[in-house]
Amino acid sequence: MTDDELIALARAAALKAYAPYSRFSVGCAVMSVNGEVVTGANLENACYRLGLCAEQSALTAAQHAFGLAKVARVAVAGGDGSGAELKGEAPVTPCGGCRQALLEASLLGGRDIEVVCASGDGAAVERHQLSALIPHGFGPAALGDSG
Hints:
By secondary structure, this protein is an alpha+beta fold. It has a single domain, classed as Cytidine Deaminase, domain 2, CATH 3.40.140.10. The protein contains four helices and five strands; from the N terminus they run αββαβαββα. The protein has helices at 3-14, 54-65, 96-109, 130-133; strands at 25-32, 37-41, 71-79, 114-119, 125-129. A five-stranded mixed beta sheet has the order 2-1-3-4-5. The termini are far apart.
């Protein structure tokens, strides 16, 4: 699957977001090593801290569809989703918490996940390796001193 196709799925997912408070819709498409793709969108809540990021939503779907260890690539796109098309000019990167969640999948699979970050309109695209987005992540090995 090309970057453009994966971005298109993330953009389409963003249009399914529930974002009445921030009015910033985010979509995420997660592709497995076998080419399977699942998507997710952000889900806000009046109690703000109970909201769910698009990446977390998509990773949950990925775990159920093919397992976190098989995550290979991720596309994220976000912006104004109030119309029929997603709008926005700046590429959207995963937040810190989502980078941490992606790190868990990366470590389970033993691969550096590619993260494709797109603007709402899909015109601006950045490509990052997860290791560059979270260079000193907290993984299972950090729990070595637990009892």
